[in-house]
Amino acid sequence: MQRQLLEHQADRIEMVLASHKILVRVYGGTVTPQAILFQLLPPLGVKLSRISSLAEEIALALGAEGCRIQRRGGAVEVEVPRDDPQAVHLLSLCHRLREYVPPCTAVLGLDGEGTPLLLRLSSPEVAHVLVAGTTGSGKTALLRSMAASLALFNRPHQLQLALVDPKGRGLGPLAHLPHVGWPLAQEAGEAPALLRQLVGEMERRDQSGRREPHLVLVVDEVADLVQVGGGEVVELVTRLVQRGRQAGVHVVAATQRPTSRLLGGLMKANFPVRLVGRVMSGQDALLAAGVGGTGVERLGGRGAFVMVAEGRVRRLQAAYISEGELELLGESTLLLGDPQRGTASPLQRVAHCLRLVK
Prior knowledge:
The protein is α/β, with parallel strands linked by helices. It has helices at residues 3-19, 48-52, 55-62, 90-97, 139-153, 190-208, 222-243, 260-267, 282-289, 323-331, 333-336, 346-357; strands at residues 26-31, 35-40, 68-72, 75-81, 88-89, 105-111, 116-120, 129-132, 159-164, 214-219, 249-255, 273-276, 304-309, 312-320. The protein is globular and about 65 Å long.
């Protein structure tokens, strides 16, 4: 990106703030695939809320559709969407990571500094993940990338996937992966039956102390699941998220409607990690993230998320994998990882899939 453009945008930000008697200098910035992040250090006594209230004026001055302002450490960050957003391709990112992905770890994408961001589901601080965001935020694509990366870096005897897709269009491309241990649940009666099987397996593991293979339940729209399945589904999912970690069972659930009815009891205490994309309002942002001040209601969509974990907020550009690439993953014999004949390393499997894509 041209240096002159970045300097011009930095000058415009300073001018808008100066017109409101906030004298501040932009002292640094980072170009990410989807946005430009400008850092500025306000003078003592200037409230962050005062700067945040000027987000629309700053966006107008930059000719941007919007901007997001938040505190990062001791500085203020102004996030401006790029005119030429670039996708973060999962296969290329996995190839960049090579062998450095621990077991039961999902590849999420890139953080605000361009560093690969990973999430180890088997960590005691993680266990279960809630993905929230409205239509167009990229939450289904993030679910697919998480599941695909788990398949790339774990063999089927190490990790198995269970898929619930009430909408019937989000997780279908994953169903042919060799790691999927149950038929894709789409119809009204299929999801409760699958959940009952997973709860039964969890209880058997509780009795025997067994934790492997890790079982990852992926639900594309948990609000629809609850609406259709009613109290039984709520009870089954609650049992999985409350007791699953000790048995090696993890839940990754997405919703576009982070209502208090859904999140109040089932989700609030049981999903310590939240991946939140664009939502409709500040109230939805607070419910989905569990903490205030994230500004996710002003995200631009298209895979822009924040990760909220242990009270900390971290910017994320989600990785993307196409349906065609997912089909190649399933067809690749190197990916199968048959314990009797699959000897390829994760790097070899990723490289093989990249060659198929090209």
